[in-house]
Amino acid sequence: MFPVAVIEDAAAAEVSLDPVRARLLAELAQPASATMLAARVDLPRQKVNYHLRALEKHGLVELVEERRKGNVTERMMRATASSYVISPTALAAVQPDPAQSPDRLSARWLLAVAGRLVRDVGILITGAAKAKKRVATFALDGEVRFASAADRAAFAEELATAVTTLVGKYHDEKAENGRAHRVVLAVHPSVPMGEENEHG
């Protein structure tokens, strides 16, 4: 089971967004059968089986074991990941394009950049899994508390200057065997845990 998986297919995204199926995915962090799940989610076993087949068809759950109980074979299923992210490729016709209106002070542009990040990393993960390789990535995640809006603006300016200098130092347009890497930096107000829905 992966800690996180990216859903790139529109049909798989639709399946995952169904409230009952989303609940089943959460329950399947640990292997369980349709009978076990039916008791947990208060649904008939046949209905749970129907939903499990849909999830399995789209690679969101997988068979981990078959147990024989009398004349019945019990299928133990597990989610393929602990959590899922839906890639903008699932909405290919309307996926965000950061090139349309680049504005480093726009929250909506930041969202478009983040969407592209999810799309690109999802594609890289899928390709790396098929090739049985790892993706070379690096990320930083932290928090800074600014005393004022002026401090925040000064920080953003210094950060931009530092990164521009660093990129200029290491970027080699003529490197024959080089590979381009995208650098994404973002600064936005933190959302306290438990308050996500209040800011929706």
TrEMBL record:
It comes from the Bacteria. This is ArsR/SmtB family transcription factor.
